[in-house]
Amino acid sequence: MLDLLAIAAHPDDVEQTCGGTLLRMAEAGYRTGIIDLTAGDMGTRGSPEIRVSESADAAKILKVSHRENLHFPDARLENSMAGRMTLAQRIRELRPRTVILPYWEGRHPDHYRTAELGYEACFLAGLRKIDQYTEPFRPYKIIYSSLYANVVPSFVVDVTQYFERRMESLLAYRSQYGERNDGSSLFPDEPEIRERLAATARFYGNLIGVKYGEPFVVKETMRVDDIVALPVRSL
Ligand SMILES: [Zn+2]
User: Which of 81, 150, 161, 171 has its CA 20 to 30 A from that of 203?
Assistant: First the structure.
């Protein structure tokens, strides 16, 4: 049973997009989890086994209660019926109130396909007849992590206190971000990746008047109950 579940295409996606928010929610007492759909078998560096074991190290740093990898095909992820049913089954068992999906548009097909597959799996999970052995369950809220997309966020989470540990969780993928002397320009080294992530988090943090932030988009309108206590200074 989880309160919050992030569904991502690749191991190391959540570490770059919403890891600070996951960590913040875990420290607030919520049970958090991650499902990675693929293990990065098309990646140039490392192997699926190495990336899955690195993702377990990262999960500890992010304090998630549950992380699993569904080993769907990387870089050619399909929104298939079998994939939707597998994910729907996991959602029924984990019962997260809130689900984080990647934003529904983006450069990498696996990311936007994960948004679609994840949404449809959440819907299917609520249908009694898809499986007679598990109770139907539909997450209450779906939010989209929009860090890979250049869109105006619906809201930004302050991750200032969590940014360093999110960075550490990404560097746990030593096969991807470790020191290499092969002269490859495909893979940024640690100072480069640190600067890039800090600049992006700083940009979104700035929007809400804090140092580091993570952006999210929701499809529904946000409701506010107390307009006197609204944060983020106007002038
Ligand atoms: Zn990815």
Answer: 171
Residues 6+ apart with CB under 8 A from 82: none
Q: Say if residues 110 and 13 touch (Cβ distance below 8 Å).
A: no
Which three-class secondary structure state does DSSP give residue 24?
helix
CA of 46 to the centre of ligand 1 (A): 15
Dihedral sign computed on CA atoms, order 137, 105, 143, 147? positive
Distance 167 CA to ligand 1 centre (A): 16
Each residue of 158-184: b (16+ CB within 10 Å) or e?
Answer: bbeebbebbbebbbbbeebbeeeeeee
> 75: CA distance to ligand 1 center in Å?
9
| Closest to 167 measured CA to CA, from 140, 202, 119 | 202
Q: How far is the CA of 38 from the centre of ligand 1 (A)?
A: 9
Percentage of the chain modeled with pLDDT above 90: 83
pLDDT digit string, tens, across residues 26-60 = 999 999 999 999 998 888 888 999 999 999 999 99
d(CA 161, CA 173): 21
Q: Output the CA 95–ligand 1 centroid distance in Å.
A: 24
Going from the Cα of 223 to the center of ligand 1, the distance in angstroms, rounded, reads 31
| Ligand 1 centroid to residue 92 C-alpha, Å | 25
